[in-house]
Structures are given as structure tokens and as C-alpha cells.
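Exercise 7b. C-alpha cells:
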């Protein structure tokens, strides 16, 4: 982040998850840099209705921590150094005229940059025009189409850009109290963990279909009763095979096969990557009878899934009734469980009781695998987004 020295870059970007120490490191660096040479530093964010919304308190804390109270004078609205250094604070959207009129800035620090609008970026960039001036961005990623991400991560970044991804595991002072929270999220809510702690893009938690799963290593017990399910790929869709087993109210997924553009004559080899796939029946999408026939001629026992009216909704709700444990090697299943979602109204963002038909190839295979098991399970309760949930008593 701080190499090359000041003036050697135009943009410095630090993004990542909670507990990485991004803001603390930047604040301390700025306090020390402004002590070493006179600098005019603009600290800004999208919305700043008062000085309480700014990073001024953090800078004051770093001044105290570095023993530089004798050097800096902190007022209600700014921080001045004995050598002429000056820290200013502004909201890009709340007071854009103040930003535009600011001159001679050496460093502009944009905190919480994930919320900054495109129009604010267009105000800020030409304002910071001193020959060796720099603009620093720190943020936790939110959505892939946020302007700051489109500027720096959606392709080639602007010239003289330095980008660092920093997460909790790069922070040697990561506090134990946060470690406990992080470990809990990692075990129980991998989607939340990936966004909050690892700086991945946010997925709408209300629209997410599956929240009842975790990634965890486990040993498959001897004598397990396996369920196999397959979904056939097309030109851009993957062919998938899933192996799972049930223990009480817990569904374990221990192996997967996944390949986009898999030719039919390569499918037996793909399925052979999943242990015991030739020993157990495989329930598969009935839409490809020629593929089922081919696989059976090549030593597999593939049975067409019945499907039928409401089979998708009912199958998904049945899966939701379990606690799901996914082995880390099943990476595509993990991705789909994270991303599978209900549709949302484009105007109101209301979550609709309609499943999106994407990120579901492994999940379709899992539905087929459990089809007979679901049909033999009594209805116990009705839950979910306008659907019925089942589980075996």
C-alpha cells in the first residue's frame, strides 16, 4: 500500500473484509507522513453530515497512540500540524462544492469507498490535481457494479494504480473477540463469512435460498447409504454428479463431478471421478433419455427422475429442511448454495416466491438424488417463501 513512496502512484486502493486493519493502518500512515513533511490531506466519504461521520476521531486516536499530541492541534473541524500540515474533512455528496473548492491537496483519502457514487468520483478526481497528488481508497466490497469496483477491479485499472486486498488473516493484531465471531460465521454462514470477513461481494441474504449449510471436512462413515443425482449439461451448462448421504436431520454432500461442455463420450470418465458411482443408482434429469441410455450401456445404473408439477419448489424446500454439511472438495456445490436465490422485484427489491433459474446445476442434481427419499417423507411443517418444507421423522 505504501510502496512506492509518496508521489509514486496516482491511486492506492485497499479493499477487503472486516478486521483487516485497513482504516487504522491508513490513518496511522497519514499521521506520520504529515509529521515528516507538510501535507494537505482531504479525508472524505460519500455522506458526511457532521464531523462525527468522518475519520477525524480515528486520526485523533492515532495521534495520541504515536505520541504526537504536542505536534498536532485538533479543533472541532480540522487537524493542523506544527509544520503546516492540514487535515480537512468533507462529504462528497453532502457538500460537493466544498470538495470542488479545495486546492493544493496532496492526498485525498476516501473511506468506505464502496458507497461512493459515480458522480462523486467525477467530482473528486479532477479536484485532486496537484502534480504529485494521490487518491487513496479504503473499503469493504459490496456489489460488483459499485463505481469504485468498476473503476479498479472490472478490468484494467487507471495508470499508476496500486491495489491491495487485505483481510483479517493479514492483520497481526486481529483481536480475539473478532476471531470468535469470524470462526462462528465461517462454520455456520459461509456466505456471510465470505462477504464480511473475506471481502467478497455481497449477496442479498433475504433472497438467498439456502442458509442452512456449512462447509466442513468430515469422514464418510463406512456402510453409508448413498444417494446419487446427475444433471446433464448443454453447450454452456455443466454436467454434474453429486453424491450425498443422510444421518438423522443432517444431509452430507461428500463428492461432486462438474464439467462445462462435457461431450457424451466423456461423461462416463467424468462420473468415474465420484467414488462408487457405478455401484449405486443415479437419478438424473429425464430430459435427456439418449444420455441416460448411453450411460447405462457404459456400465452405470441411471434412472430418470420423475420430476412433475412443483417438483423444483418441493425438492428445494425438502433440502432446506436439513442441516447441510458440504465437504470442501465440493467447490461448485458450495458456490451454488451461496448464490442460489429467489427472484426480486426490480422496482421494490421485494423478494418473490419464485426461484431464479441459475446457479442451480449441482442443486438440481441434489434434488434428483433425494427424489425418492423426499416422496417417502411425511409432511411435518410448512415454512419458507410460500413453499412447503418436509423432513423425515
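Sequence design result:
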Amino acid at each position: 500500500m505504501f510502496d512506492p513512496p509518496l508521489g509514486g502512484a496516482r491511486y492506492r486502493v485497499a479493499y477487503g473484509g472486516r478486521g483487516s486493519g485497513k482504516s487504522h493502518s491508513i490513518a496511522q500512515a497519514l499521521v506520520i507522513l504529515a509529521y515528516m513533511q507538510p501535507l494537505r490531506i482531504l479525508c472524505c466519504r460519500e455522506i458526511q453530515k457532521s464531523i462525527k461521520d468522518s475519520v477525524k476521531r480515528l486520526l485523533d486516536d492515532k495521534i495520541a497512540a504515536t505520541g504526537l499530541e504536542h505536534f498536532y492541534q485538533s479543533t472541532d473541524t480540522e487537524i493542523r500540524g506544527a509544520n503546516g500540515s492540514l487535515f480537512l474533512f468533507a462529504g462528497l455528496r453532502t457538500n460537493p462544492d466544498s470538495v470542488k473548492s479545495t486546492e493544493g491537496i496532496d492526498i485525498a483519502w476516501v473511506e468506505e469507498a464502496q458507497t461512493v457514487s459515480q458522480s462523486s468520483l467525477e467530482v473528486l478526481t479532477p479536484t485532486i490535481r496537484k502534480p504529485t497528488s494521490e487518491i487513496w481508497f479504503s473499503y469493504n466490497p459490496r456489489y460488483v457494479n459499485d463505481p469504485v469496483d468498476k473503476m479498479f477491479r472490472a478490468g484494467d485499472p487507471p495508470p499508476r494504480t496500486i491495489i491491495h486486498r487485505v483481510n483479517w488473516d493479514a492483520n497481526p493484531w486481529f483481536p480475539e473477540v473478532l476471531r470468535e465471531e469470524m470462526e462462528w460465521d465461517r462454520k455456520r454462514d459461509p456466505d456471510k463469512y465470505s462477504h464480511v470477513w473475506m471481502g467478497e461481494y455481497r449477496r442479498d441474504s433475504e433472497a438467498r435460498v439456502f442458509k442452512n449449510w456449512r462447509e466442513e471436512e468430515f469422514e464418510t462413515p463406512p456402510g453409508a447409504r448413498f444417494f446419487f443425482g446427475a444433471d446433464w449439461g448443454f453447450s454452456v451448462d455443466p454436467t454434474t454428479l453429486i453424491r450425498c448421504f443422510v444421518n438423522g436431520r443432517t444431509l452430507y454432500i461428500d463428492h461432486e463431478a462438474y464439467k462445462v461442455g462435457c461431450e457424451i463420450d466423456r461423461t462416463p470418465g467424468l462420473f468415474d471421478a465420484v467414488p462408487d458411482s457405478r455401484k449405486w443408482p443415479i437419478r438424473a434429469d429425464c430430459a435427456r433419455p439418449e444420455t441416460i441410455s448411453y450411460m447405462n450401456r457404459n456400465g452405470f445404473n441411471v434412472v430418470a427422475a420423475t420430476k412433475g408439477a412443483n417438483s423444483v419448489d418441493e425438492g428445494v424446500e425438502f433440502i432446506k429442511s436439513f442441516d447441510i454439511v458440504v465437504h470442501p472438495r465440493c467447490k461448485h456445490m458450495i458456490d451454488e448454495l451461496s448464490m442460489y436465490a429467489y427472484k426480486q422485484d426490480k422496482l421494490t427489491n421485494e423478494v418473490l416466491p419464485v426461484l431464479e433459474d441459475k446457479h442451480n446445476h449441482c442443486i438440481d442434481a441434489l434434488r434428483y438424488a433425494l427424489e425418492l427419499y423426499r416422496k417417502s417423507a411425511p409432511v411435518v411443517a410448512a415454512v419458507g417463501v410460500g413453499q412447503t418444507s418436509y423432513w423425515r421423522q
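Instructor comment: The first strand starts at residue 11 and ends at 15. The chain has two domains: 11-170, 213-390.
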